[in-house]
Amino acid sequence: MKGDRSKAVTLWTFVVVALVMLSAPTLVVLGASFTAGNMITFPPEGLSLKWYAAIAGATDLRDAFLRSVIVATICTAISIPTGTLAGIALAKYRVRFAAGVQVYLLLPFTIPLIGSGIGLMLIFGKWGLLGQLWPVGVACAVINLPFMIWAVTASAASLDPDLELAAANCGAPPLSTFLAVTIPAVTPGIITGALLMFILALNEFLVSLLLVDARIVTLPVQIYNSIRSIITPDLAAISVVFIAVAAIAIALLDWLVGLDIFLKSK
Amino acid sequence: MRPSRTSYPLSWRLMDALEAIAAAVWPRSFSAAVPWLMLLPAVVLVGLLVLGLWDMADGSFRTLDTATFLPSDDYSLTNYHRAFTEKLFFTVASRSLIGSLIVTAVTLIFAFPYSYVMVRTRSTVLRKFLLIALFLPFFIGQVVRAYGWLIILGSQGMVNEALGLVGVSPIRLLYNYPAVLFGLVQYMLPFAVLMLAPALTAIPEEMESAAGSLGANWVRTFIHVVLPLAKPGFIGAGLVVMTLSLTDFAIPAILGGGSQDFIANAIYDQFFRTSDQGMGATLALLLVAVGSIMVGVVFALFGAGTLAIGRSK
Q: Do B45 and A141 touch (CB under 8 A)?
């Protein structure tokens, strides 16, 4: 067809620029982590794994990473039941004041992170909870909850209500129906949501920065604090941990539910 | 003799017991309240935010007592007056607002072709590649990505070293406004593409062929068919990009190097540098208000677009 070539050229120009923009930092961090020099230079001074050896011996980085994993685990453990129940309720039932409930549950999204973070810092401070790790996990669950609810409502919408009626008709009591019909139907959504929650909490920076003190910094905060002084390749090596975790999460997501799920229209 | 009841598996008995408990705790007559019970944990969790807002509202009316460095006991509107009159806050606010508008426009311009190619391509390999290229930075987090840009754009970074090889003296690419905006566009692209994609999927490809067979070239097809039909996606994407870039902290802090503060950085400084909690709370509340008004106006004018949760039919 006429004009197809100009269409392809125009679209692809934008796509290629976007691809470079999206991938450049990741690739550069990966490359810098293998440098043999003591500084990040271009062109690099040769290849070595010495910075990986350096971070393996750095207890502060390792502890910070462990703390990030704990925060992400707590966040995921809280948001799976909370988001699943809320998502199913919103998708399945005709709730009164549904519009109001929607607006309320989108609050974590409409309130800027700095606002949420400071609000949570004030109330956790008042309740004497600051300086512990689990409130950071709770905070991550609060601010990312809409992602979990979205993921669940998206798969609950494709659940045929007749299936639940059929189960009831065959004599299944309500709880059995819920566990054997409803939950399996929304499992792809739960998996998607849980992975998102884990990754977002693992990477959460601003809310962590507000809620942690010097003794319990999480890894993103630790990296941020180190960036301020001087750029050394050990930061690149520890950043690769994030890249690896992200790659694993994407692979899991693709394997379990398929990445195409994000392209589906509602 | 009848066979013993061992044929009745343990898991069934367990379920029976659970059902009995559920029925006792929650009689059938309460069933109208089931959806509310299911919503309860989420409502409580988000309630923490509401409590936090309330605390901020209380703090925003207290001024910092310079003699004791404690918030005052009595309430006044001094902080709000300062927020609207002091030049520093005006500079920061206008820098963030203008910045977020530019970032939204640029991000949408790049996100649309990306999303379109990703949705329309017939090659599953290409689609998967584009999706992975999108999710990788999305899942890596802002700090690491900003760190990557520091390596690329720094004064001894890749770009400047490369320029040096061809005899161009180093250019200061970091710690200025464009660097922050660039970083924000990169940060927001995955969000925008993911919000646009469902809207583009919903447009039947036959519509475009129909426009083509009626004589429209691809530009006119885009302007008159694809873009109007993708409106819910643009609303969702625009809103997310706008609010997230307006309120971002990490990118202005790292790529702006303290000279390009956005509102979030100013709020942080009020809490942790000046220790003026009241002023910080005031700025944070004003930011919440601006964000909510923006979201509210867009929702009221255009609906929730691809942002809506809950029943879709």
A: yes
